[in-house]
Design brief:
heterotrimer; A alpha+beta; B alpha/beta; C alpha+beta; A: alpha+beta; 20% strand; B: alpha/beta; 5-stranded mixed sheet; globular
Chain lengths: 485, 431, 345
């Protein structure tokens, strides 16, 4: 242990290696605070060569490691399991190259999502994927998690914007997957797509080539309040059925509206509405006026209580402020927050919301919903007091049932947060042993030693049989945590 | 897993956080929205040097999970206490309160050792807190300046290079003279408003920027206010609170609440002091403190609300206004100074990148953490230079010094002014 | 090739594979077989027996179809519900994704990664498995299904694909501006691809008669009209799939280039060679002789561009500019992990 730290210090200098137990507490968890685990050490490399050197050192010492960006993951992806060293990429935050002709940028993994857009906005460009944490989260983390965001409905997820990456593979060698011109040759595989969303288990991307999008001529943001959630959902169905492709379609329920309005992210949403629907249109001006009129007509048809339209950037920012800050604002309701992430076919949203309400009632927990309605991507938020073990167990149980419901409706256990450590127990809801075996085979090609972010994404072999014991698993995590404390 | 299964140190060795601050730390949901606005995280990229990381460490300390508080102390010490994280926090975490409480407890139970820590403690409790001693110190420094001792000390490396480069020269004695105490009335010809305000003069402002205090008095008088400068006022205590010495700060706070007991409005021109004084309710934990806090106004806040009646002198310049942390994040005052500057004939306000980022001054931070403060200051100066302005305006003495020094280090000696200096009407009779 | 086998279901395919058929060549309509190496001893498995539309969820903009479903059959079904699969290409749906008829980086259109939401497949040992989901968004598990793209059916046999669909645009206009000289054609191509809303499909071709720029504008009627007017676009018939034919004894080179480097690529191509590039930079060049191909391949890295031989003598198919060594190693590893006995050829 001591020797390893010394070796890492020789590689990076003492300032960029942390190994004292108390300091490491800061890296104990990400946005999924239920799972806490102390890393063995934290290192902060600044270049591909340094990442490579660190990985090689850890490999030869047979010490597991996990890459980390800004630690905003909501599924425990970068949380160090067991004896793992955290390779924190926060200092690798250079935008290496921007091409205005071919519309791409090459960035280091620690570049903050929003900083990239800021860096190219004077060129009339932006980076399209915009997770709610975009002011904090890094492109490297986005790549690892295949992050989404409100604008996925039209623009797609991170995977649709990653052209290539330079990867330090878990054995310390390099692989260049795709490049600015495109992800692959006619006879090549799309390995960049497979790497995307591998949650830090396939290697560490140290240079990422992403597509940049031209800013659209105009943007219209409309916000309607509805007296019932059903009306809001049906409005969305009508908008999509009409063939409109808004840049974003978001719904916040009453609980979320009230939490937001009580926080610094107050956006002036009507607090008495059962749901607010945010629709953003972008495109050429000639089209926008027509589309906005259509959307307004749908609002009207479903009896919108009020309709607001942002006419300038400041207004637009205000309408979005509450949505973007919803997660943090929920923190005001109690000491802890469990942000769930599940997907249902968009046409089953109403059913899903009704089901979630029943589950919440059954377990006596408070669930509020904010979701990407266009994609059917739900984010039920459960606020609770993590110090109350019994309450925590109920929260975890409710969360499990909600995801069970999503799968039963033909959906998925995660739309954008990933599996990480949070949903290991939920994976068997979607995949059988054969499916998981194929995934494990693919992982073993990238990560044969298993040293890269162990214990994530795929449940341990034989764990499927343990499903019945759930949710004791997470309760065990809590027990472990309390025991340490 | 040797590290995490280590039993935490005996509870006695690890100071537990006060219950109120601990409860506050539970507001944090670990979302990380504070990371990009934190000056130290921006420079270092270290989680433990971010607000989220520090809150987490302080919470762990309170829960008795920290075995050796000395390990986490440097991370807390590196915090500028700029409160940018409070502005960014959607969950309303009162970071400043948690930090100051923790620093106080760490300082009382595990006082920092070593000569420099002792020196700082001595300077804060025995010099800064005692106005006459502070004045004496500054006259010594002024004497040293004029006699060339500073030059000699720097050459002989008696003075740390960083300090020598950053500390601006102590102004001449005439500049450092205190404002006459007592009641001042508007000059003849000025329409009186029949409103009396009390003026808080501060200690650093008085010694380093006497001109700002004089300008404040001039502007208030020219705008028709009666101004009372209580003789019994003391240092606000902010530096002591930041250094984890709340007891000393409380003594000062009590002195100020009684010195200003008769005032309806207490106007100050130093964002750091204003922020500290608006927090007396929390510091003293009594109604007297809270009542005093309610009376405090930054001079820009006060004037923007009351409205100017005297047109400021013309100033043809491209000007950047940089928000002092303790004004924008600490007191939520952002538009008042800008709206006042907009009234200055000829002045063009030019936006610059991230005006609400800390400049690295942060009380005596630039003396305690010279490297980090230097890097933060350099970034601030660069963003100001990028905006191609001719003058920088900011409302806190520490920021004025830090920004001025860093502009100079980059080879630009732009004037750095307090907003109030630009509000002085032309040919204003000397008070 | 030996006698064909035509399974009617995934289970039937699994059974056949378990029975040990030896080496297997997966085949759809056969439209792209001439791009693959020839393996005489391989058994051809004809996938067109798996041709059902399993689920078409129009309001949700997704569908699940069998891999052997002809593209045209899907298009007809989608037309009835005002949807479309927003990419060009013919043959079977499985072949479309496995054999790369879809441009890698079309401008305006969607890439295969975006459209392929999940799949069901059979490994060489007969194991049936699935990956991804039917919904438009899912990050559960690894995206193994994306390995289908460009795999040429050599990793596993996809039996069912879950696809993302788009509403059929309210209006569309196909255009073809022909008879241009090189400078005019490049200028038009660059101008169109630089628009905030570029054409959904954009092609620049050099043929014997000169240059032409063709494509498809989609959107609302007002927008499509405005585009056609502003850019003086000449109406033309829709293009289902456009590939170059090799001249006798010649080869077709396919690759990718940064769109801004198209002029350099054009300059490097043999004079007069048929040339086709999409708005996203995917190109084909019909080269007269293998020697000319080798010369061109040698100059491509300097442009920079990557390419390989798409059609030509079987032995030379797939030769091209060097792949990154790490990527190559991963590709070999994946083949070994999923098809250790080299059944799919």
């Amino acid at each position: 242990m001591h020797q390893l730290v010394e070796k890492l210090e020789n590689l990076l200098g003492r300032q960029r290696v942390f190994s004292s137990r108390d300091a490491l507490l800061a890296w104990e968890c990400d946005g999924f605070t239920v799972h806490r685990s102390l890393p063995r050490a934290v290192v902060l490399p600044e270049s591909t060569a340094e990442v490579q050197a660190v990985v090689q050192a850890l490999c030869s010492a047979k010490v597991p490691f996990v890459p980390r960006g800004a630690g905003t993951c909501l599924s425990g992806g970068p949380t160090a399991a067991g004896d793992t060293v955290v390779i924190d990429l926060a200092r690798m935050k250079k935008v290496l190259h921007v091409s205005t002709d071919d519309l791409y940028a090459v960035v280091q993994p620690g570049v903050v999502n929003l900083d990239l857009t800021t860096a190219v906005s004077h060129l009339g460009l932006h980076y399209a994927p915009d997770p709610s944490s975009q002011s904090v989260c890094t492109i490297g983390g986005n790549l690892a998690e295949n992050s989404g965001g409100p604008h996925c409905f039209k623009y797609g997820m991170t995977q649709d914007h990653v052209l290539g990456a330079l990867i330090v593979l878990p054995d310390g060698t390099l692989a260049r997957l795709g490049d600015a011109a495109g992800p692959r040759l006619p006879h090549g595989l799309d390995l960049a797509a497979v790497f995307c969303g591998s949650e830090g288990t396939f290697g560490i991307a140290t240079e990422i080539t992403v597509r940049l999008c031209r800013n659209q001529q105009g943007i219209r943001t409309l916000l309607a309040a509805f007296a019932t959630m059903t009306a809001a959902c049906r409005t969305v169905s009508d908008i999509v059925a009409a063939g409109l492709v808004p840049a974003a379609i978001e719904i916040l329920d009453q609980g979320t509206i009230r939490a937001v309005e009580a926080s610094v992210y107050r956006a002036g949403y009507p607090v008495n509405a059962a749901a607010v629907l945010l629709v953003e249109l972008d495109g050429p001006d000639v089209v926008l006026a027509e589309e906005a009129a259509e959307v307004r007509a749908f609002f009207q048809r479903h009896g919108a209580l009020s309709v607001e339209e942002a006419t300038d950037a400041a207004e637009r920012k205000r309408l979005w402020k509450g949505r973007k800050g919803a997660f943090g604002a929920m923190g005001r309701l109690n000491t802890d927050l469990y942000v769930l992430d599940g997907v249902v076919p968009r046409t089953r949203l109403e059913e899903a919301l009704d089901g979630i309400a029943l589950i919440a009632k059954k377990h006596g927990v408070v669930v509020t919903n904010v979701f990407h309605a266009g994609d059917g991507n739900l984010h039920p938020n459960i606020s609770f007091d993590g110090r109350d073990k019994e309450a925590t167990a109920r929260v975890v149980a409710a969360g499990y049932e909600i995801l069970q419901l999503c799968v039963a409706l033909g959906g998925s256990i995660s739309g954008e947060h990933g599996i990480g450590s949070e949903k290991l127990d939920h994976v068997p809801l979607m995949y059988g042993a054969e499916d998981l075996d194929v995934m494990a085979r693919v992982r073993s090609v990238w990560n044969p030693s298993g040293l890269c972010n162990p214990g994530k994404v795929l449940p341990q072999r034989g764990a499927c049989a343990e499903v019945a014991k759930w949710p004791q698993m997470v309760a065990r995590v809590l027990d472990g945590d309390r025991a340490k404390a | 897993m040797a590290s995490s299964s280590d039993p935490p140190g005996p509870a006695g060795a690890s100071p537990r956080l006060q219950v109120s601050a601990y409860t506050r730390s539970l507001d944090c949901v670990h979302c990380g929205l504070c990371l990009p606005v934190c000056p130290t995280y921006q420079v270092l990229g270290v989680e433990a040097d971010s607000p989220r990381g520090r809150v987490y460490l302080m919470r762990a300390l309170a829960e008795g999970r920290v075995s050796d508080p000395k390990v986490i102390r440097p991370f807390l010490d590196r915090c500028l206490d700029c409160r940018a994280c409070e502005t960014a926090c959607p969950s309303g975490v009162r970071y400043g309160e948690i930090l100051e409480t923790t620093r106080g407890e760490l300082e009382s139970k595990l006082p920092a050792r070593g000569f420099s820590a002792a020196l700082v403690r001595f300077l804060l409790t025995s010099v800064v807190a005692k106005q006459r001693r502070l004045r004496f110190l500054f006259s010594l420094l002024g004497l040293a300046e004029s006699s060339g001792m500073r030059w000699l000390a720097t050459r002989l490396r008696l003075l740390p290079v960083a300090v020598a480069r950053l500390a601006p020269p102590v102004p001449a004695r005439r500049e450092r003279r205190a404002l006459p105490t007592g009641l001042h009335r508007p000059p003849a010809g000025v329409r009186r408003r029949g409103v009396q305000v009390a003026l808080f003069t501060g200690c650093v402002m008085e010694q380093m920027f006497g001109r700002v205090n004089r300008a404040t008095l001039q502007v208030l008088l020219a705008n028709g206010f009666d101004v009372h400068v209580p003789a019994a006022q003391r240092c606000c205590g902010a530096l002591l609170v930041h250094a984890g010495l709340p007891e000393g700060a409380r003594t000062l706070a009590r002195a100020n609440t009684s010195a200003f007991a008769d005032a309806d409005v207490v106007v100050n021109n130093s964002a750091g002091c204003g922020c500290a004084m608006k927090d007396y309710g929390h510091l003293l934990g009594d109604e007297a403190g809270a009542a005093f806090a309610r009376k405090c106004r930054d001079v820009s806040e006060f004037l923007a609300e009351a409205g100017l009646t005297a047109v400021p002198a013309e100033c043809r310049a491209r000007v950047a206004y940089d928000d002092p942390c303790h004004l924008c994040h600490g007191q939520g005052v952002r538009t008042a100074p800008r709206s006042l500057l907009a009234l200055v004939p000829g002045l063009t306000l030019v936006p610059h990148h991230r005006p609400e980022d800390c400049c690295g001054s942060a009380g005596i931070y630039n003396l305690l953490q010279p490297d980090l403060a230097g890097e933060i200051g350099r970034r601030k100066a660069e963003s100001l230079l990028q905006a191609q302005v001719e003058m920088v305006v900011t409302g806190n003495p520490g920021c004025m010094m830090q920004i001025g020094s860093h502009l100079q280090l980059l080879g630009h000696s732009l004037p750095v002014r307090h907003p109030i200096e630009l509000l002085v009407p032309p040919a204003c009779p000397a008070s | 090739m030996t006698a064909a086998l035509q399974p009617r279901s995934a289970a039937e395919l699994g059974d056949a594979l378990r029975s040990g058929l030896g080496q297997i060549r997966l085949c759809g309509t056969g439209s792209r077989q001439d791009r693959l190496p020839v393996v005489p001893e391989a058994v051809t498995v004809d996938m067109t027996g798996l041709d059902a539309i399993h689920r078409l969820d129009a309001p949700d903009l997704t569908c699940s179809v069998d891999a052997g479903l002809p593209r045209q059959a899907l298009d007809e079904a989608l037309q009835r519900v005002a949807l479309e699969l927003p990419c060009p290409g013919l043959g079977t749906i499985g072949g479309l994704f496995a054999s790369d008829a879809i441009g890698a980086a079309t401008v305006g259109g969607a890439s295969p990664r975006t459209l392929l939401l999940g799949l069901e497949a059979v490994l060489a040992d007969g194991t049936q498995w699935k990956s991804g989901a039917r919904v438009v968004k899912s990050v559960a598990g690894f995206d193994v299904h994306k390995l289908l793209i460009g795999s040429q059916g050599r990793l596993f046999a996809a039996t069912r694909l879950h696809l993302r669909l788009r509403p059929r645009p309210r209006a569309e206009a196909w255009f073809c501006c022909g008879g241009l000289d090189e400078a005019e054609a490049l200028a038009k191509f660059m101008a169109l691809r630089a628009l905030p809303v570029p054409p959904a499909l954009l092609l620049l071709c050099r043929e014997r008669t000169g240059f032409e720029v063709a494509g498809r504008i989609t959107g609302r009627a007002s927008f499509v009209d405005a585009m056609v007017r502003t850019h003086a676009l000449t109406a033309a018939a829709p293009i289902a799939e456009l590939h170059l034919e090799p001249a006798p004894g010649g080869e077709v080179l396919a690759g990718i280039v940064l769109p801004s480097r198209v002029p350099a690529l054009l300059a490097a191509a043999p004079p007069g060679a048929a040339f086709l590039v999409r708005g996203g930079g995917r190109f084909e060049i019909a080269v007269g002789t293998p020697a000319l191909t080798d010369a061109l391949l040698a100059t491509l890295p300097g442009i920079p561009a990557h390419a390989c031989i798409l059609r030509g003598e079987p032995a030379r198919r797939g030769l091209g500019t060097a792949l990154d060594a790490g990527q190559q190693r991963l590709a070999v590893g994946l083949k070994h992990a999923l098809d250790p006995h080299g059944i799919f050829v």
